[in-house]
Automatic annotation (TrEMBL):
<keyword id="KW-0479">Metal-binding</keyword>
<dbReference type="InterPro" id="IPR011032">
    <property type="entry name" value="GroES-like_sf"/>
</dbReference>
<feature type="domain" description="Enoyl reductase (ER)">
    <location>
        <begin position="8"/>
        <end position="326"/>
    </location>
</feature>
<dbReference type="InterPro" id="IPR013154">
    <property type="entry name" value="ADH-like_N"/>
</dbReference>
<dbReference type="Pfam" id="PF08240">
    <property type="entry name" value="ADH_N"/>
</dbReference>
<protein>
    <submittedName>
        <fullName>Alcohol dehydrogenase catalytic domain-containing protein</fullName>
    </submittedName>
</protein>
<dbReference type="InterPro" id="IPR020843">
    <property type="entry name" value="ER"/>
</dbReference>
<dbReference type="InterPro" id="IPR050129">
    <property type="entry name" value="Zn_alcohol_dh"/>
</dbReference>
<dbReference type="InterPro" id="IPR036291">
    <property type="entry name" value="NAD(P)-bd_dom_sf"/>
</dbReference>
<dbReference type="InterPro" id="IPR013149">
    <property type="entry name" value="ADH-like_C"/>
</dbReference>
<dbReference type="Pfam" id="PF00107">
    <property type="entry name" value="ADH_zinc_N"/>
</dbReference>
<keyword id="KW-0560">Oxidoreductase</keyword>
<keyword id="KW-0862">Zinc</keyword>
């Protein structure tokens, strides 16, 4: 089969490779659509020691089971492979599994014509959900998980809050669309890339450039940092109101320091959220299938053989697409 291999910093190669053998309890999925994640770009730049070349990246995918217990079924997948036995798995917090592994990190990922994955990771798709939209399940579930965690600490309903989303990439844009769907009336997205801002505005969201349009300090009830950089953390702490909340979803860097004095004196709830649970994924499939997030024309598709160029374009900020989906 053909697969796109990460072979070193900013280097990808399309190669012929052998099919992986099926282990007991696994299925083989023919990939129909697979998205490029920010973490894939992080690895592409050589900044993720967990992803060692040569490796097939990719973990946002939809396809058809061609071998295994669910043969013939259309599926998306939970890329986290969990043990099912630790206290986190048994309490429904599988994303924190003590023994988790992951496709596209510790084993071959979805930038290929097919992959093997444990059956318990597969989620059957409704016939009405296209593979390209289904490939958004993973980033959309990440946004949903973060929203649900933040909702639990706000003093008032989220719909009443003044909300800021930092970053108009896939997770940020999906978070904005979900917040709008949940009735948030005062919502803004911040992004320094004019192409991303244009995409967000075309999706019906209010986007601005935080470099040239600074928000007032203590003016926002809830912040979703979907970038996760030193500058965005400083911005979030500055603009959030006393008693407000910050959801830290992005993982761009671990630089700088957090103003813990401001966090303490303003009694800010500073939260992190890692991926999603299985129930988050199920709920996200239903949400995407409902069409409640509106038109998803901001998704760009390219063939797998153009994957290397797609990575280069994303890294250089040359595309307005919040998500590029590769089609094997």
């Amino acid at each position: 089969m053909q697969a796109l291999f990460y072979v070193g910093p900013e280097a990808l190669e399309l190669r012929e490779t052998e099919l992986s053998p099926l282990a007991p309890g696994e299925s083989r999925v023919r990939i129909q659509a697979t998205g490029i994640c920010g973490s894939d770009l992080h690895a592409y730049h050589g900044h993720d020691p967990r992803r060692q070349p040569p490796l097939i990246l990719g973990h946002e995918a939809a396809g058809v089971v061609v071998e295994g217990a669910m043969v013939g079924k259309r599926v998306t997948m939970n890329p986290l492979i969990v043990c099912g036995r630790c206290e986190y798995c048994l309490s429904g917090r599988q994303n924190l599994c003590s023994n988790r592994t992951m496709i596209g990190m510790t084993r071959a990922g979805s930038f290929a014509e097919s992959l093997t994955i444990p059956d318990h990771c597969l989620i059957e798709l409704p016939e009405t959900l296209s593979p390209v939209v289904a490939a958004l399940t993973e980033p959309a579930a990440t946004a949903l998980h973060g929203i649900q965690r933040l909702e639990r600490v706000l003093a008032r309903p989220l719909a009443e809050a003044r909300v800021l989303v930092i970053g108009a990439g896939a997770v940020g844009l999906l978070a904005g669309l979900m917040l709008r769907q949940r009735g948030v009336r005062n919502l803004q997205l911040a992004d320094t890339n004019p192409l991303r801002r244009q995409t967000a505005q075309e999706a019906g969201l209010d986007a601005f450039d935080p470099v040239h349009q600074a928000l007032a300090d203590d003016s926002i009830d809830a912040v979703f940092d979907c970038v996760g950089a030193a500058a965005t953390r400083r911005m979030g702490v500055a603009v959030v109101r006393p008693g407000g909340a910050i959801m830290h979803l992005g993982l761009q860097d671990n630089e700088g320091s957090l103003d813990v004095r401001a966090v303490t004196l303003k009694e800010i709830a500073f939260l992190g959220a890692y991926t999603y649970t299985t129930t988050d994924l199920w709920a996200t499939v239903a949400l995407l299938d409902s069409g409640a997030l509106g038109e998803l024309g901001w998704v760009e598709t390219r063939p797998l053989e153009e994957g290397s160029q797609a990575f280069a374009d994303l890294a250089a900020g040359r595309t307005a697409a919040a998500k590029v989906v590769l089609l094997p």
